[in-house]
Amino acid sequence: MRALTGQGTRMRTSRLIGSTVLLWLGSACMASAAPAAAPTADPTNDPLVQQWGQQVGETLQARLRSMADSSKPGPLYLAGLLWIDTETDAESDAARAGYAPLQRAWLQRALDARPRDLLVARMEALGCPAGLRCDPLAALAFLEQADAGNADVHLRAYASAQRRGDAAAAERAWQAAVQADHFDSGALALGQALHAAYADVQWPVLTSVSLRAQLDARGLPSTGADTAMLFAMAAWSAHALPALSPVVRRCDPATVTPVLRDECMAVLGNVAKDESTLATALIGAKRMVSLSSGADATRWQARVRELAWLQQQQQGLAGAGRGLVSDGDAVLAHGEVPALRALLQRQGIATQPPAGWQPSASVQ
What we know:
The protein is mainly alpha-helical. The protein has 19 helices and no strands.
């Protein structure tokens, strides 16, 4: 997973969700990517599955319309983010042109709403999607006031000031990040909001036990909730990772002064504690190892080993078809690292590395 930001993120997210819809609601073209060794006919071509898929799509649309009708900025923005016209081919010229008119209207209403909403402001601070009006700098200023103890918002402001060439503003933002008492990328709040968007919906049921089993065997969702979870995971994956390149560059162990080293450790120590995504925690912990010495270095090395162990087990489970893709509800509701620990426990796998274990080259 890599961080995506700005206008390109929004368009890629829209197309990603659209492609996910076609995949999981019975696109015969996409279904041809299933393993060639499957012994049975493609279940997505069955009329019952296609009818059920259409019903699931309509139910999801109804839920998103209800969220938009609430007029609350956060749900309104998520409704626009997740909306997909199931009658429009995701690869058509219309889909590639950007958001559908209804999406654009919902997203703009959420961006225009005052007072600002934290979730919407986080999205706005990334940049304005094509065809929409927004003010990223004002959104950043709001975040710095509303979430002042969070290093993430100050690191966003630091990166923005660097892009503008405003050295004084960049230094102010950096010092605010150093003084912050925690780091919260917003990925957990986003995941929980996406999870709430579909968690209590009464979904249509595919009545054929045989067809449900065939879908399950191919790794395709056989319930409406699982289908909606994939939409939510697509949106979450496109926005979950914070942009940490500026702090990683500033905190290069080969060039930091003693004062800057202390500042970097204050910031990155908080980054390493954010377990909403495994990658974020690993980036912070690895850089803390390189900046630390003595007992501190030993402690952070243990943290890196723990996270690398989780990552390696995740890769092994994914290769066996038992990875977190099938556990998306937990990822959204609790964060990627807690969800992974819980998954390993259910599989009877230790969540801590055995003595003497070292990460494989692929994980390092």
